[in-house]
## 1
Amino acid sequence: MLTPMRYVFLVLAILISLHYIVSFSNENYGRATSLSQLKNKVVGSPATTAAPYKTPVSEDYRTPLNVTSGQGRKANAAIVILARNGDLNGVVSSMKQLEDRFNKQFHYPYVFLNEVPFEENFKKQVRVEDLTDSQVQYGLIPKEHWVQPDHIDEAKATESRNQMVKDNVIYGGSVPYRNMCRFNSGFFYRHELLKPFQYYWRVEPDVKFFCDLDYDPFLIMQDQNKMYGFTVSLFEYEATIPTLWKTVKEFIKLYPDLVEPDNAMQFISDDGGETYNRCHFWSNFEIGNLDLWRGEAYSKFFDFLDEKGGFYYERWGDAPVHSIGAALFAKKDQIHFFNDVGYRHEPFQHCPQGESHKRGKCWCDETQNFDYEWYSCLNKYDKMFE
Ligand SMILES: Nc1nc2c(ncn2[C@@H]2O[C@H](COP(=O)(O)OP(=O)(O)OP(=O)(O)O)[C@@H](O)[C@H]2O)c(=O)[nH]1
Ligand SMILES: *[C@@H]1O[C@H](CO)[C@@H](O)[C@H](O)[C@H]1NC(C)=O
Ligand SMILES: [Mg+2]
């Protein structure tokens, strides 16, 4: 028999354990310094039904430009891959999948970037003949876009790197990693080879593309006036960004007029901008409008962050920097979730569900889907449109 007393007791017990589960997971997250740490602490995803993301139906998005007949359309876009010579195998793997799932139909050109010249061996294997019919270009990153700037106090930077190594922060001791994060945050879109383009798709070595994409995501961006597209979002490690939000708030105070009134602050802050909830779009995948980064607001924003030195005194990632930029300077409905793109970058993946899974003939396991895991931020994105 469930007497009233027992009933009250039972409800209390449930509430207490719920509270415990929630605070336990948040606390773990706050302490995490690398993805592998998190991976072993997955609490299990609730069986939430995915939000009804619509796949574009118009044929306008499905007819790649036929150069011979002039039929169809194409956006002014490039696929951008920042890589080292040593990333060759991973690059080939990513690129082959992207070609098979999408680009062999759509023929977007590739731009490879590196701070040292690509070796002949790299170019031969990735070259047009074997992997793609599209144009492939190789760009050298100018030194001033890559190396630690002079205004950084090296003694202070070294000290902070050493501390991060002690604290087990992933890539905490690495200068090249910091160069890469700063380059992706503020320079890739200024590269000579990217100047002619308006849209880009960022691809990394060793990622997976699970589904056939039979429509052109760049045309979605263009026709629907989107600024930023993602497939996975999650929390950032606190240890890499101790003063980032403080800096962002200073910027907003200095330049309130640069902030878009219809912004996506709700995605990055749970208290109207007082604190950062650490949500960010996982920037190893991005489909974006380069105008977002080239515009006055983001340019000033990046310069402001760069001046503060957090790319080196801390380990600010391009993911939170881009995400905060997109959230503040684009309208919230200009940020697009590419639900139909099945995608994996270790150790997380977005696997399209239901109709979308079938339509794309996806080869990922539908139950292996990051969207509504407890450390995903997709629910915060959804909330903005409720
Ligand atoms: N040219 C060049 N590219 C780099 C360098 N470091 C990283 N990259 C590239 O920058 C991108 C991000 O680097 P990753 O090492 O994948 O960083 P991550 O995704 O945060 O970490 P992982 O979990 O290890 O993949 C990838 O496209 C790399 O190929 C570098 O020193 N030089
Ligand atoms: C492109 O157009 C030409 C000329 O109309 C046609 O012969 C060819 O089959 C078309 N190619 C494709 C892939 O549709
Ligand atoms: Mg990576």
## 2
Amino acid sequence: MNNPFPLEKLQKIQTPFYYYDMGLLEQTLNVVKTESQKYGFVVHYAIKANANLRLLEAIRSFGFGVDCVSGYEVKKALESGFKPSGIVFAGVGKSDWEIELGIENDISCFNVESVPELEVINEIAASKNKTISVALRINPNVNAHTHHYITTGLEENKFGIYQWDLERVTNAIKEMKNIRLEGLHFHIGSQITDLDTFKDLCIRVNEIQDWFISQQLFPRIINVGGGLGIDYYQPDTNPIPDFAGYFKMFKTFLKVLPNQEVHFELGRSLVAQSGSLITKVLYIKEGVQTKFAIVDAGMTDLIRPALYQAYHKIENLSSVAPEEKYDVVGPICESSDCFGKALFLPKSARGDFFAIRSAGAYGEIMASQYNLRELPKAYYSDSI
Ligand SMILES: *Cc1c(COP(=O)(O)O)cnc(C)c1O
């Protein structure tokens, strides 16, 4: 499948900007819906990946819920028309106002990570005469084999309740009158491309669930988080992740009790391939050993390469000349403001348009105004 860039139209727009392929987004959401419904799985979209309103509209139209990690995200989800019953709220450090906001709006579930947090939720819920559903985020100590900054399911990470602490936590919940233990929650990391990792997760979840059952606790929801990765190297060959294989893994290896729901919180895999950052070459600068293509987008527009050494495929949309080797760098006053080193691209010149691919997740949403730059705007394939 080829991702078509309407260059003539794009050239009329002030760079840099995000460009979203709405057709691909719809196709992706369609596959997610079809494959998850085969097994009755419930999908929430992790809104932190991208909170662009057009994208949220599309996601909502498919009936998915939302996974939020801040009160601002809860607000945004409500404002963009998601039902409170489809909103869950996770996060290791929720402020009191964020908890209040969730409680007042009757969101479906808080994913809770510590006893002190449970105490605050219980207290606020009591003051409002409500009983709140919580899922315990448990750190399953499963290695996601991904970049260490986006690994979250190991005991050395700050996330989740550690297994050796479970008894203390469940005992505490028994004393809390305004809290109902509704589910178990796991999220082991992001950009996971080896599906066997999810098999490891299932096996650990089964063990943990067995412990709960032995305590006469029967969680109604098993939430296995998100983390499914995408192909940053070949976005045109693999525009849609292997959702069929992914959901099948859970169907095969996760032990599900009667009447139990299995929930997912997918972020990147839903939106990443639909977005590209479009930028223009300002100058070609010849270094001693290196030729630099200096573009007008910077780490302020897309920080993943600078922050995680992430790879994004870069294409020159304007040139079909023989390839040369370039470092593609931005204008920001930081050496890490580099989108890729020693890349082979068609011979490039001032004014050429580049597409930095697979930028639909953790791109626009992580943009900053460092150097007092303006935030990048967004354009859509169905309306340019
Ligand atoms: C970030 C996050 C997700 C989504 O992760 P992806 O890798 O984008 O799928 C899901 N759940 C929680 C709790 C998260 O923090």
